[in-house]
Amino acid sequence: MKPLSAFARALAAAPALLLPTAAWANAGSPPPAWDLTGSWYGMAALLVFVLAYLLVVAEEALHLRKSKPMMIAAAAIWVLVPLAYAAHGNTTLPQEAIRENLLEYVELMLFLLAAMTYINTMQERGVFDVLRAWLVSRGFSLRSIFWITGLLAFVISPVADNLTTALLMAAVVMAVARDNPRFVVLACINIVVAANAGGAFSPFGDITTLMVWQRHMVTFTQFFDLFLPALVNWLVPAAIMSFAVPRGRPRPLTEQVVLRPGGVTVILLFFVTIASAVVFHQYLHLPPMLGMMAGLGLLKLYGYRIKMRERRELAGMNGGNGHAQAFDVFEQLQRAEWDTLMFFYGVILCVGGLAALGYLALVSEALYAGLGATPANVIVGLLSALVDNIPVMYAVLTMQPDMSHGQWLLVTLTAGVGGSLLSVGSAAGVGLMGQARGIYTFFAHLRWTWAVALGYAAGILVHLWLNADLMRLPAGGG
């Protein structure tokens, strides 16, 4: 989004903007940030964010949904921002800054809401159950299951989100080898790495890649420059861990699952929706969420057809009551990950507030100007293993350092796959710890972090070699 990009460029120059200004340099351009990091308002805002994020990190222990502390922190920070600006005689700039933040959030929320509804509908129609039943009934060896589930996680996650993909593949692993903890641990680590790597070369694979795409930093087709680096990122640890996979062949399971009516059509509509999002973004130069919402409208219309057919069938079976179990697309809409969507709201407003106070300009100067783009982007990936990659990537996008196209691809890669280093570093890892509770744990993953780290380094090196011509800034700047 060009207005927000201009805002980020202004933020990068924040240390020079120490004197108040009552108007913007150009009409309609987003406001610059002041350096208010040394004020008590700025320090209080940073403290609020740190405390809120500590609660997010402790989500599993406290059983406190991550969106709750972040939403409260967002409100608190945006109380402090206008107070800080008002103390310097200006009440206009914070209003414009928060409008830019809200515009960013609304576009991403609507995009994700449509995508989540499609995934939920495919689950309800039994699409993923059919795939799982086919896999568990084939009688593959443990080593074959290790490679098949990893490969499918890598292939499916660019279209579906990495969490859904990881949970689906983990369900296969648990169904065929629940009584083999050693295999379950290795397979789960492999699935997490593969799902995160697969999501890194597609704008639909992860929220961070979606943000990069919507900011026009990387076009739809340019994401495929990351295919081989992402593939290497998965294959290196997978090859190492495969030698530790126990030998044997679990007993084939007989599981009959029937795809519910409309399942295939929903899949086709989902691909049509993705295509329309690409067309809106690449050719009409409009937000891709417009294409996603159009696709959601198509799903609702088709859902009406499914509902009416099932009502007639249920009425015939239940003696006139055809409403109890008929398909309802709004139920799938309600099943969206609202905690994630609200967490995303809190993250964007918190990071935007800290940016308005000058913190991101300070970090950008220390990280990108001090260390250089490549080391900085590698560190961003390492941070994403400790801190959720959403605020990390949003912070980088808001800083908008002067980087080449190859460097934007590099930070997209590292932020996407860095979370695989720890089980708590990605939604896929956290989800699998719950699904294989007591077997796949933080420390079980940590024993193989060295192998995942080798894949992380190998993927980066492949990108630096393969896309070397993209790493240089064009003449005259970024």
TrEMBL record:
Keywords: Antiport, Ion transport, Membrane, Signal, Sodium, Sodium transport, Transmembrane, Transmembrane helix, Transport. InterPro entries: Cit_transptr-like_dom, NhaD-like. It is a multi-pass membrane protein. Residues 1-25 form the signal peptide. GO terms for molecular function: antiporter activity. It is found in: Membrane. The chain crosses the membrane at residues 41-58, 70-87, 102-119, 140-156, 162-177, 184-204, 224-245, 257-280, 286-304, 342-361, 408-428, 448-466. GO terms for cellular component: membrane. The keyword Protease does not apply. GO terms for biological process: sodium ion transport. Residues 53-416 form the Citrate transporter-like domain. PANTHER family: SODIUM/PROTON ANTIPORTER 1-RELATED, SODIUM_PROTON ANTIPORTER 1-RELATED. NCBIfam families: NhaD_1. Belongs to the NhaD Na(+)/H(+) (TC 2.A.62) antiporter family. This is Sodium:proton antiporter.
